[in-house]
Design brief:
Layout (H helix, E strand, L loop, with lengths): L1 E3 L2 E3 L13 H23 L1 H24 L10 H11 L8 H15 L12 H12 L1 H4 L36 H7 L7 H6 L11 H13 L6 H18 L5 H6 L3 H7 L11 H21 L6 H18 L25
Antiparallel strand pairs: 1-2
Helix pairs in contact: 1-2, 1-3, 1-9, 2-3, 2-4, 3-4, 3-5, 4-5, 5-14, 9-12, 10-12, 10-13, 13-14
Length: about 350
């Protein structure tokens, strides 16, 4: 501290630019952006969706709290990052999974993917997307069964109809519906209704089916400058271009954009600060890689969806992208290396 004419000047190291945004404020903005998707999930699949969201959020918060206590560290649940991970994980689940699935997923996301690597900002991949892949490997049958939206014309009791799957998935085949991605892969476009896909009246994970709800939330994040708009724009745009290039048929493009978790992943998971690049060129490479991998997995993979695996792979590659694509300071001129003359060893006879 330097005193001059009763004026105090603070001397400190850079950076000196400050922002009014805190981690908690950013996380609350993400939660607000996810509200339309949560409302859509409840309207489409009933109150059991809200129950699963509560279980997932509670598990993530509890897991982070317990980890802090075990490590005897300051509690970090106040930054609300665990809440965001819990909501995103829940919205990645089918709307009729047993109650224990989000609990296992929440603990895996927080303890293994996030806290074990040092906590917020040090995780190697998005916790929610990694937990979803873990759950798909652990309970493949459960995680690949998608139910049809409820029919409220049958009465308000339909809002509680999926609670019967809280302990078992027996009987789920009776209400299971094929997803648009499965029809796209088979080329059965007569079974695809783009209006239903846009509004969410289809089978799928409960938070990714309504493109309208996700676009509203994504627009909120862009307006609030919480996320870099270039990542979702390039990601979604590249999926459209690669799909057209590989399929050679424009009929595949729009259903591929509206179906599956593309819009959800592009706005809410691929834009994670800790697992996305730090340079403008790196962002472009990252988003194009996401688009290419997603398209390849969808077209040539054994599963209909590829967003989760694409995001996980590109998250792992982000450190390499940041390493080789480095932003140079203004005015920096790289020095040319001088070649040293090779020493010739004299051979002695």
């Amino acid at each position: 501290m330097i005193m001059s004419d009763n004026i105090k000047f603070s001397v400190s190291s850079s950076p000196h630019i400050t922002s009014g945004n805190s981690t908690r404020r950013i996380m609350l903005d993400v939660v607000i952006a996810l509200i339309p998707a949560m409302i859509a999930a409840v309207l489409l699949y009933g109150f059991y969706s809200l129950f699963l969201i509560a279980l997932s959020v509670g598990s993530c918060v509890l897991a982070e709290f317990l980890f802090n206590k075990i490590k005897k560290e300051e509690t970090t649940v106040g930054d609300c990052s665990a809440v965001v991970s819990g909501v995103i994980l829940a919205l990645n689940l089918p709307p009729a999974v047993p109650f224990y699935v989000p609990i296992f997923g929440g603990f895996f996301a927080m303890m293994i993917v996030k806290m074990l690597f040092g906590g917020l900002g040090r995780n190697f991949a998005n916790p929610a997307i990694t937990a979803r892949i873990f759950l798909m490997l652990a309970w493949t049958g459960i995680m690949t069964k998608f139910v049809k939206p409820i029919d409220l014309s049958k009465g308000f009791s339909e809002m509680f109809s999926y609670f019967k799957f809280a302990f078992t998935t027996n009987g789920m085949d009776v209400v299971t519906g094929a997803t648009p991605l499965s029809y796209i892969k088979a080329g059965a476009f007569e079974h695809i209704d783009l209006t239903d896909m846009f509004l969410g009246r289809i089978g799928g994970s409960m938070g990714e089916v309504s493109a309208l709800a996700l676009l509203i939330g994504g627009a909120y994040l862009v307006v609030r400058k919480v996320i870099d708009w270039k990542i979702p724009a390039i990601y979604i745009g590249s999926v459209a271009l690669f799909t057209l290039a590989f399929k050679g048929n424009i009929d595949y493009v729009l259903p591929s954009l509206l179906g599956g978790g593309l819009i959800f992943g592009a706005f809410f998971m691929a834009t994670d600060y800790a697992t996305s690049p730090n340079t403008p060129i790196g962002v472009v490479v990252y988003a194009l890689g996401l688009g290419l991998l997603t398209t390849l997995f969808r077209i040539y993979g054994s599963m209909d969806e590829g967003v989760s695996f694409a995001i996980l792979i590109m998250n792992i590659l982000v450190p390499l992208i940041d390493k080789f694509i480095i932003r140079r300071p203004f005015g920096y001129v790289p020095k040319k290396r001088e070649r040293k003359p090779k020493k010739i060893k004299e051979e002695t006879k």
